[in-house]
Specification:
Blueprint (H helix, E strand, L loop, with lengths): L1 H35 L3 E5 L1 H4 L18 H7 L3 E7 L10 H18 L4 E3 L3 H7 L5 E8 L8 H9 L2 E5 L12 H4 L13 H13 L2 E3 L5 H10 L5 E2 L16 H10 L2 E4 L3 H4 L1 H10 L2 H11 L10 H15 L5 H15 L4 E3 L19 H10 L4 H19 L2
Parallel strand pairs: 1-2, 2-4, 3-4, 4-5, 5-6, 7-8, 8-9
Helix pairs in contact: 1-16, 1-17, 6-8, 9-10, 12-14, 13-14, 15-16
C-alpha cells in the first residue's frame, strides 16, 4: 500500500508540475509577444477628455483612462492622439482654433517630458522611435469641419504634424456627410457623400501622406472616398455592424471594400458599439426606466428635489444598472474575430477610444489592460505573427503606404 501511496503522490506532483508549467509557459508566451509587438492605438481622446481639464498625463492619474504610467503598463508604443471638437466650437474663434489649441497642448507635454514622450509624423519616424521607454505620439484630427472648408487650414494642420484626418465627426459639414446624418439618426440631408471640394481635400491628403480616416462617415461618403483615394485608409475607431447594428459601425460590404483598398478597421471598445445587449439596456435605462423611477418618486408625499440632488441619485442608479450589462474582453475579441474571418488578419487593428467613452468593457478598464486583450486573443488561437499584426503591424503598414 505504501508504494501505491508514493506512486499516487508522484503522479499528482507530475500533474501539478505539468499544469503549472503550461500556465507559466502560456503567461510567458502572451507576455513575450505583447512586449515584442509594436502596439499602436489609433484613437484616444485624452487631449479633450483630460489635458484640457488641466490634468497632467505624464504621471499616474486616479481619473480617466490614460496617462504615461498606464500606457507603459499596457505596453503601448504608438498612441494617436485625437484632436477633437464637437458640433459647437469651444472657442469663439471657431473649430480650427480649437484644433490648434489641442495640438499645442500635446506639443507642450512632449517638450516638458522628453524622457516620456516623443513625436512622429510618418512611418519612418514612428518605427525608429519605438521601444525607447517613451510613448510615440501621433496626431489624428477628428472631424473635417475643423479645416473650416479652407485648404490653407488643411495645409496648416498637415504642417503641424497631422497624420490622419477623420472626414466627419457625427456632424455633417459643407463637403462630407456623416454616418449619423446619413442613417437618419441626426439631421436630414438634401445631398449625401463627398462634394467636389471634399475630393480636393482627399487629393491634398494623399499628396501629403495624411491617412484618410472613414470612421464616423456615412455610407455614401465612405464609398465616394474609396473611389477617390489612391492610398490605403483607416477606420480608426469603429466596430462591426453585423454584431452590433448601430450607425457608427461598419457593414460587411464596407469592411470588404476596405480590405480591397488595403485598409484597416481598428476596433472601438465602447460598449454601445460592441454589445447589442448593452445598447438595449442603455436605451431602456436612459429612457423609460429612468422616467419610471422619477415618476414613482414624484408620487411620494415627501418628494423633494432640492438642488437636483434626487435627480443625481437617480442618474447614479441608472449608471449602476447599466454597469450590470457591460460587455467584456470576449465581445472585443468577437469583433476582431469577425473581421479576420470575413477579410483576413491583415485588416484589423485597435482604436479603443479611451477617454472618449462613458463606459468601458469589463477587463479593459483603461490603457493599462491591453495585455489582457493579447492574452484573450492568444487563447482564441491566434499565432504570434497574427497578434503582432493586430496589435499594430497592420496600422504601421497603412502608415508606411501613406507617408514613409
Amino acid at each position: 500500500m505504501k508504494w501505491l501511496q508514493n506512486s499516487c503522490r508522484q503522479l499528482l506532483g507530475l500533474t501539478l508540475f505539468l499544469v503549472l508549467g503550461h500556465i507559466i509557459g502560456y503567461g510567458q508566451s502572451y507576455n513575450s509577444v505583447h512586449r515584442k509587438a509594436i502596439l499602436v492605438d489609433t484613437h484616444n481622446d485624452c487631449l479633450s477628455g483630460q489635458v484640457l481639464e488641466g490634468r497632467d498625463i505624464s504621471r499616474l492619474l486616479s481619473i480617466g483612462h490614460s496617462d504615461y504610467v498606464r500606457w507603459k503598463r499596457g505596453g503601448v508604443d504608438i498612441q494617436f492622439f485625437s484632436v477633437f471638437t464637437g458640433e459647437t466650437p469651444r472657442k469663439k474663434e471657431g473649430f480650427y482654433q480649437d484644433a490648434l489649441q489641442e495640438i499645442d497642448s500635446l506639443h507642450r507635454i512632449i517638450l516638458r517630458h522628453p524622457d516620456k514622450f516623443d513625436f512622429a509624423t510618418g512611418y519612418k519616424q514612428a518605427r525608429k522611435k519605438v521601444h525607447r521607454n517613451k510613448i510615440v505620439a501621433m496626431i489624428g484630427v477628428e472631424g473635417g469641419h475643423m479645416i473650416e472648408s479652407d485648404l490653407s487650414k488643411l495645409d496648416s494642420l498637415i504642417a503641424k504634424g497631422m497624420s490622419y484626418l477623420t472626414l466627419t465627426w457625427n456632424n455633417s459639414h459643407d463637403w462630407a456627410t456623416s454616418a449619423m446624418d446619413e442613417s437618419g439618426a441626426g439631421k436630414s440631408l438634401s445631398a449625401k457623400g463627398l462634394t467636389d471640394f471634399g475630393k480636393q481635400v482627399m487629393k491634398r491628403m494623399n499628396e501629403a501622406g495624411v491617412i484618410v480616416d472613414l470612421s464616423h462617415v456615412g455610407e455614401k461618403t465612405f464609398y465616394d472616398a474609396l473611389e477617390v483615394t489612391t492610398k490605403p485608409v483607416l477606420l480608426t475607431h469603429s466596430s462591426v455592424w453585423s454584431l452590433c447594428p448601430v450607425f457608427r459601425n461598419a457593414k460587411d460590404q464596407q469592411i470588404q471594400a476596405l480590405a480591397k483598398n488595403g485598409g484597416v478597421i481598428c476596433i472601438n471598445f465602447y460598449p454601445a458599439f460592441i454589445s447589442k445587449t448593452f445598447v438595449e439596456a442603455k436605451k431602456y435605462w436612459e429612457g423609460h426606466g429612468k422616467d419610471s423611477i422619477l415618476a414613482a418618486l414624484q408620487q411620494l408625499p415627501e418628494y423633494r428635489d432640492e438642488a437636483g440632488l434626487l435627480s443625481k441619485q437617480v442618474n447614479s442608479l441608472v449608471q449602476q444598472e447599466l454597469s450590470k450589462s457591460l460587455p467584456g474582453i470576449k465581445e472585443v475579441v468577437d469583433h476582431i474575430d469577425y473581421v479576420v474571418k470575413l477579410v483576413g488578419v491583415d485588416h484589423v487593428g485597435i482604436g479603443a477610444d479611451y477617454d472618449g467613452m462613458g463606459f468601458v468593457p469589463k477587463g479593459l478598464e483603461d490603457v493599462s489592460t491591453y495585455p489582457q486583450l493579447t492574452a484573450a486573443l492568444k487563447r482564441q488561437g491566434y499565432s504570434n505573427q497574427s497578434l503582432k499584426k493586430i496589435l499594430g503591424g497592420n496600422v504601421l503598414r497603412v502608415l508606411k503606404a501613406n507617408r514613409f
